[in-house]
Amino acid sequence: MHLPSRTSQCATQASIRAKLQEIWGYSDFRPPQGDIVQCLLAQRDSLIIMPTGGGKSICFQLPALLQPGLTLVVSPLVALMENQVQELRERHPSLRWSVASLHSELSKQQRRQTLWALENHKLRLLYLSPETLLSAPLWEKLCHPALKINHLILDEAHCLSQWGDTFRPAYFRLGTVRSALLQPKPAGSRIAIAAFTATADPHTQQTIQRILQLQQPEVFRLNPYRSNLSLNVQVVWTPRGRRQQLLRFIQTHGNQAGLVYVRTRRDSEILAEWLSQQGYRTAAYHAGLSPDERRLIENTWINDEIQFVVCTNAFGMGINKPNVRWVAHYHAPSLLSEYIQEVGRAGRDGRPATALTLISETTGLLDSEDKQRWQFFENQTQKHQQMAQQLVKQLPPQGDVETVSRQFQGGALALSWLHGAGQLQWQTPFRYELLRSAKTSSLADGNIRASQQMAKFLKTRNCRWKFLLSAFGFPAEAQSLQCDRCDNCRKQDKGRGTNP
Questions:
Q1: How far apart, in whole angstroms, are the C-alpha atoms of residue 252 and residue 3?
Q2: Which of 1, 24, 473, 492 has the fewest CB atoms within 10 Å, i.e. the most exposed one?
Q3: Verdict on whether the full-model pTM lies above 0.85
């Protein structure tokens, strides 16, 4: 294999840093950003795990802007796409036609403009959801032989594992996208796949690599420990006690910016109204709001016109607000990966920040909300599995997802479950083949184990950061950590009569 000379390597390094300075204003990278950029420029597959606020987006945006051709960025949320597109365009006016997104909330004129830029090879970065990527009209354009595609980027890749078998089945069809897109391209064409996430335990890492069919990927992993972030869990005994404990926590932070996470749309609206009555500047945020309503709330929070947002997990990914001093989980999330993502919104500027999670006492006799939520999660998981197993008896050995979706309610989701259970493989992003002799694995059991792991974290009396480091595959770092950044360790220090 021909290796570039030292001179050409230096010139490449110089041009990379010049573009970094021109668009982002940084003179150099933070480790391991430079190595990741080089990996993508060399068109090698990769899996990148970096904490929230670690600068993941630069790692794929910069290579895309340095190369002729298109980079597809698969992103889970419209807000995340729009924020990244808007930020890039604001950083450099020349990027107006180089960076765009495609999603259902665009006007017809905006969609036409983006498709025109795509067809005329103006785009370098195109953000889209997995569902949009696999839509027939766009897929036809992407398969045009003259359109050069360099990379397929999966941003927030943990969503593949969390949502691919629940309500976003298109995620599980992404593994055959590369081979399908390469078929009509000129001989020798290459498309590299890179998966980026802030949270992926060893099981999730394996799922991402398997589903995406990564080829000898380079893996970059930074552990999730944040020395400036204090983790706390408090037991509440009644619904009224939960509200009062949240109120006291908010009061201790004065006018500092924060976030309150709840699990449902209804909870966000009821709690936001109650906190407004207590005199706080806040708003409810969830996926049921219109695009304009969501953008308005995001901007008023970023500009400190409201102190905090009461939100579901639809809020946060890709929204850059460095001075968030606290995050409160009014309800605990179902998964550790969700927890790490959400508490990671706090303290992105490196200054001290606090995270609080409120949980019901174990029996749930006086406050059964948490217990009911855990039970609902497990019931839904088992329900999806049962539906898939019933459907497999009626499916032809080979078929396409569009036909199955028309014929069977929940058909696309059931196909995704069968894929995850090892009973089906995707021949293309649109056609499947059943594997009736395959050994079946229980996807439901894996999801239930993940929720049980979250419950163990909330109940542990040991160091919470050590628990998280071990859960996400960093046992050595967990063993050597000297923590004073969680409630359990502070209690132990106080019991020994030492200062935290």
A1: 59
A2: 1
A3: yes
